[in-house]
Amino acid sequence: MIHQFRDKNQIAKEKRRIKNIIFLCVFLLFAILGIYASSSPVLNYIGRPFWKAKNGVMNSIENIGYVARTKASVYRDNENLLKENIDLKTSMIDYQVLKNENITLKESFGRVPPGRDMVLANILTKPNHSPYDTIIIDVGGDVGIKINEQVFGNVITPIGEVVQVYDNTSLVALYSNPGKSTDAIIDVTNTSVELIGRGGGNFEMTVPVDIPFEKGTSVLLPNIQSEIIAIMQDVISTPNDPLKKILLSSPINVQSLKWVFVKRN
Question: Could you tell me the residue range of the domain that residue 239 belongs to?
Answer without folding.
Answer: 181-251
